[in-house]
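User: Second chain of the day. Same drill as before.
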Amino acid sequence: MHASIHWLLLTLALPRVGLSAIFIVSLISATLLPLGSEPAVFGFVKIAPHMFWAAVLVATLGNTIGGAISYAMGLGAEKAYERWREKHPEKIHKKAGGRWHDYISYWLHRLGPPALFFSWVPVIGDLLCAVAGWLRLPFGPSVFYMALGKFLRYAIMTAALLWFFPGV
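Assistant: Same format as last time:
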């Protein structure tokens, strides 16, 4: 059992490519693709404990850039929708299911960019970044709060995993 866990950690740490792998995995996991970057960060830090802060910072950078990409995708989708709506006004009709959009829009406009502190939450966070772009929340403050939440998530989660699994 111990050997298989050790093998898994070595595989997830990707020691041949190190921090660049952490960056790529973190960036991809911040998009709408279902991928978690925490195992790669934890595995890398287990193999190279002296690289804890470097791994956390690189993962934060990659994950924040991924969140900014989701933000840009939301912004682009909103612009495309507005262009389509201008060309096809006869096809616009309000559906009863539009209430969730009104509620999320109200909530995000009310909280503003600080709501993106929660962009680290699985599933919801990726959508939160895209919706922030759709609603055209200010980009700079949005990215700041994304980075803050993601940094705290990586630092706390990696430290907690190291504490819970010290001898792995």
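The helical segments are 2-13, 18-29, 38-47, 52-87, 99-111, 124-134, 139-164.

User: Great, on to the next one.
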